[in-house]
Amino acid sequence: MSAVTVRVPAKVNLQLAVGPLREDGYHDLVNVFHAVSLFDEVTASEPADGDAGEAPLRVRVEGESAGEVPAGDDNLAVRAARALARWAGRSYRADLLIRKSIPVAGGMAGGSADAAAALVACNELWGLGLPLGDLMEIGADIGSDVPFALLGGTAVGTGRGERLTPLPTSGVFHWVFALAGGGLSTPRVYGECDRLREEAGGPVPLPTASDDLLAALRKGDPHALGRALTNDLQPAALELRPALAATLDAGRAAGALGALVSGSGPTCAFLAESAEHAAALAKWIEVADDCRSAVTASGPVPGASVAG
After folding, report:
1. Which of these, 261, 272, 279, lies nearest to 299 by C-alpha position?
2. Helix segments in the chain, DSSP class H
3. Which terminal Cβ of the chain has fewer Cβ within 10 Å, N or C?
4. Domain 3-167: which topology?
5. Tens of pLDDT along the chain (308 residues)?
């Protein structure tokens, strides 16, 4: 096999409950992930015979905000492929081509998705035959969102978000995502969350999953799900990017069933009643001040998988 292409979805956080800051600098989370039909593609291929350069792994990025994606050792797909090679105990070579559609630094785990796709693609290209569980274990060391990008569907993540339990979900949910100009740093948003909490005083409760949200997923009820969407990082994201409030207000005014900042932002997610409703919402939301474009998607969808 000379090349393998893997398609991998973005995620939206239906609930992101953030616990107190731990001594190791992380937070305990309850993170309800939902994979949606906005995809990146990663192709892993064997280098040409004459390409015997020093770097065993090379990466090229095309598409959505490609210039903002690291193209060297800091690229998460490269780090994932290198970790996979170490796990196998051998030295491997690959050229990685990332085609972006998931927004960069947008709170939809685009970098983690690319890492997951690289794990699946290189596992196939190199003929390793590792099961999903092994890939998820490797991915958890790359980033907390990588295991879910491998799993897909809908799941609750605990710990740093990497310990996953699939959730029963009925039906299909329809979404609009308002893509903002520029990104937000995840560490900066968490830091702002800690600052706001310290300023407010009082204890920070341990995170727990929302019974109302889990029931809405089981029933496939978009109205109940819209009422149950929550994100503890949203106040911090709005503090750092106040214009996002206008985007959220625009979606609510246009009839979204629910609206929230996705993950650490700045992408805003809006739940619609149907595909037609989502298309109409997108037209209204695109006029918001901090929205450069709005895209529709649906979920849940499978995790990283070989295309074709």
Report:
1. 272
2. 76-88, 110-125, 132-142, 146-151, 186-200, 211-219, 222-228, 234-240, 244-253, 275-285
3. C
4. Ribosomal Protein S5; domain 2 (3.30.230)
5. 689 999 999 999 999 999 998 888 888 899 999 999 999 999 999 887 555 555 578 899 998 777 788 888 889 999 999 999 999 987 788 999 999 999 887 789 899 999 999 999 999 999 999 999 999 999 999 998 999 999 999 999 998 777 899 999 999 999 999 988 777 888 999 999 999 999 998 889 999 999 999 999 999 999 999 999 999 999 999 999 999 999 999 999 999 999 999 988 899 999 999 999 999 999 988 876 667 789 999 999 999 999 96
**Which residues are annotated as catalytic?**
11, 145
Q: Which residue has the tokens 């994201």?
A: 237
| Domain locations in the chain as residue ranges | 3-167, 173-299
What number of residues does the chain have? 308
According to CATH, the superfamily of the domain at 173-299 is GHMP kinase, C-terminal domain (3.30.70.890)
| 242: exposed, middle or buried (Cβ count in 10 Å: 0-12, 13-18, 19+) | exposed
Amino acid type, 288: A
List the Cα angle 18/224/291 in 5-degree steps: 65
Tell how strand 268-272 and strand 258-261 pair up: antiparallel
What are the residues whose beta carbons fall under 8 Å from the beta carbon of 278, sequence distance 6 or more?
A: 174, 175, 176, 272, 296, 298
- At what angle are helices 76-88 and 132-142 packed, to 10 degrees? 130
Tell me the binding residues for ATP.
Answer: 103-113
Asked if 98 and 61 touch (Cβ cutoff 8 Å), the reply is yes
- pTM assigned to the model: 0.92
Structure tokens at 100: 């972006």
